[in-house]
Amino acid sequence: MKKTRVYIKESDNLRASIATLFHDIGLEKVSGKKVFVKPNMLRTAQPDENVVTHPEIISETVSFLMEAGADVIVGDNPAPNKRCNELVVAEQCGFLEAAHGCFRNIGRYPRKVKRLGNILKEIYVSREIMDCDVLVSLPKFKSHQLTTMSIAIKNQFGIIPGGLKPYIHALFPKISDFSRVLLEIYNIRPPDLTIVDCINIIDATGKRFTPKKIIGGTNGHAIDYTCALMAGINPYRIPTLAIAKDENLFDPMAIEYHGEIEKIKGYSVPFGFPLRNSIVEFVARILYRIWLSGAPVIDSSLCSRCMSCENVCPKRAIRNQIIDYRKCIKCYCCLEVCPNQAIKTKFRL
């Protein structure tokens, strides 16, 4: 398998590190090209919450591209929210200012894409993604209740309009199927460059860390693998990585590292098992589901009744701060979009 490079750089001089990344992979000549910059804009969030891409990374990336003569568009499709549109979310995240006038609402005119793979036959994708010459992805380094970590591959879920995301979760409630869908969506338009925001981060427990790094490369699997090593976990606990390895889409031995992998001591991710094909792991997952598996619960004392959880739930299982567990598929979209940390995971044991 062809070698793929992953760059781990310090963020102290962010502009220089970003510029070097573009030069390292040969993407510095972007004059006259349409360049789409896709951050993680999950929901309204302040930069210090560490759940969306930090505006400074967006600002420095856009500034570099504009100075290089590129025609830049910045955008993402956040989770559906009846109370605010994409521009309001972008403003509250600090993205409008960081985009230097280049931010666009990309959810209005999606394009149908057909013949995707074994699971998805067609899906709608923001046309700006399909029309760009260069795609730059700026995911946030973070844990995820469903997929263990949400970084390079998962960030591409944002190329589909926000209203379709709950529908995808409802159609594919099993983590194995949903992970294959994520891979098929990623392959619709793989980024030409991914730069991970690993400057200030939080883990699954809410603990804060300051690695002050950015991780860059062209292969999303290699980047996710590297980030898993930094988090101190078995990389194959990330389901998309396990599938990619089993189906020969990715070989960790082909990664060529430029920079030191420093483990983030004490970093925690949600409990889970590698999605592999051994009998031991299969039995372990069954026992986990019976005795240890969790479910989202709402802390009414923290809830502001913004209804973000109700709007995003793919099975309409939430109403008036009550979760109907007969409908809940444990996708944890509600936990992910809650701006008040009012939704937690409660385990059986």
TrEMBL record:
InterPro entries: 4Fe4S_Fe-S-bd, 4Fe4S_Fe_S_CS, DUF362, PSI_iron-sulfur_center. It comes from the Bacteria. Residues 294-318, 319-348 form the 4Fe-4S ferredoxin-type domain. GO terms for molecular function: 4 iron, 4 sulfur cluster binding; metal ion binding. Keywords: 4Fe-4S, Iron, Iron-sulfur, Metal-binding. PROSITE patterns: 4FE4S_FER_1, 4FE4S_FER_2. It holds the Pfam family DUF362. SUPFAM superfamilies: 4Fe-4S ferredoxins. PANTHER family: PHOTOSYSTEM I IRON-SULFUR CENTER, PHOTOSYSTEM I IRON-SULFUR CENTER-RELATED. This is 4Fe-4S ferredoxin-type domain-containing protein. It comes from candidate division TA06 bacterium DG_78.
